[in-house]
Amino acid sequence: MLGDFKNYLSNSLNQIKEEGLYKDERIITSPQSGSVTVKSQKVLNFCSNNYLGLSSHPEIIEAAKKALVTHGFGMSSVRFICGTQDLHKELEKKISKFLETEDTILYAAAFDANGGVFEPLLTDQDAIISDELNHASIIDGVRLCKAKRYRYKNSNMLDLEDQLKKAQNSRFRIIVTDGVFSMDGFIAKLDKICDLADKYKALVMVDDCHATGFVGARGKGTIEHCNVMGRVDIITGTLGKALGGAMGGFTSGRKEIIEILRQKSRPYLFSNSLAPSIVGAGIKAFQIIENNNSFKNKLDENTNYFRRKIKQLGFEIKDGTHPIVPIMLFDAKTSQKFAHQLLKHGVYVVGFFYPVVPKDLARIRVQLSASHSIKDIDFALDCFKKVGSNLGVI
Ligand SMILES: *Cc1c(COP(=O)(O)O)cnc(C)c1O
Predict the structure, then answer these.
(1) N or C: which end of the chain has fewer CB within 10 A?
(2) 318 in active site
(3) pLDDT tens digits, residue range 74-88?
(4) Is residue 71 located within the same domain as residue 31?
(5) 31 and 150 housed in the same domain
(6) Which of 291, 314, 334 delimits the end of a domain?
(7) Mean predicted lDDT score pLDDT of the chain
(8) Which of 48, 96, 155, 182 is flagged as catalytic?
(9) Helix, strand, coil % over all residues of the chain, rounded to 5
(10) Each residue's pLDDT tens digit, 355-386
(11) Whole domain around residue 87: which residue ranges?
(12) Is 332 a domain residue?
């Protein structure tokens, strides 16, 4: 049996390689930052979610160390048995205050928050209406729930309205969307989504993983950017991107929703508590962004600068304001060559192609960070110019 199974797996692996879809992992030997060491080469890093540059920030590291000393290394328990410390409650309160919601529940990851949100709240009498580009964790969460499923075309409000009409005979309806679509850097049309939710009596859930901490005037996310704070029923987010980048996720919203999740959400009930050091650093991350907008301002400055300059070089990008900047190359092979040559020059980015993005829409996805200096960005732009000319893109 084992021999057959191994053959079967080897064939699958070969097929993945033949299709050019095999994912190799680059090994970094430095902390996560604006530049990192890969194979003893120092390269500028333009592909992390370290938007605010907090992943290796001294204050975050200090807060993690402090919590490690005062609250120990691990909890060896789920929350409801003996895994809840004062720190966990403090972070949950901090997030609720920041997002101006009633309550918040922590998870080991946003993947778990999304995986555990639907099944406790909805049954086969209800309907979930989901954007076609939603994150894999939302898709998996929806699969675990018996509610009827409706999918609408990405940010297409006419299609969303059609799906809402189809779902009118369900008991409860919920519209679910990513706040930011990660391959395009586009922000969901939350104002219009909330209007449609009012019109067709639906709840709204937003996954703001690529926004909490830096999108919106005070960094409160796409809900602030789109001026819908208080109109969204459920917000999920991560501590694993802008907010220190270690790990951890949360669901925030109406208090009855959060209370039910604490009673019934399986990834919360049956998975370990977040480590105290991560929670302590998480509290610090929120303190930093509440009291100091210099990180967000630097990120915005870097984003605007890069977006303007890369277009001046003749590259086609997806327009917008988000630090995710897709540089369109269209051809899959070109995107791979492009990323490879950039790395040789000292710039670390990733090329994305089908099936991650639609066929013939291959791209390099650049992600700006507050930890980049203008000098770093100028260096990267210069490398883009060299590689772009070399490959005949510009
Ligand atoms: C990154 C991401 C997640 C997963 O977050 P983790 O905390 O790493 O599990 C979920 N949803 C979206 C939209 C994301 O971008």
Answers:
(1) N
(2) no
(3) 999 999 999 999 999
(4) no
(5) no
(6) 291
(7) 97
(8) 182
(9) 45, 20, 40
(10) 999 999 999 999 999 999 999 999 999 999 99
(11) 58-291
(12) yes
Domain count, the chain: 2
In this structure, are 214 and 121 located in the same domain?
yes
Q: What are phi and psi of 101, to 5 degrees?
A: -115, 175
209 pLDDT band, cuts 50/70/90, is very high
Using the mean position of ligand 1's atoms as its centre, give its distance from the Cα of residue 111 in Å.
6
For residue 190, the one-letter residue type is L
Number of residues assigned to the chain: 394
Q: 209: CA distance to ligand 1 center in Å?
A: 6
Dig out the tokens for 172 from the structure.
């409860």
Counting atoms of ligand 1 from 1, which one is nearest the CA of 112?
A: 9
Q: Which atom of ligand 1 is least distant from the CA of 107?
A: 7
| 378 Cα to the center of ligand 1, angstroms | 30
The answer to whether 210 is a known catalytic residue is yes
Which tokens belong to 94?
């901090």
Q: Which amino acid is at 285?
A: A
DSSP 235-290: EEEESSSSS-SSS-EEEEE-HHHHHHHHHH-HHHHTSPPPPHHHHHHHHHHHHHHH
* Tokens 């709840």 sit on residue: 203
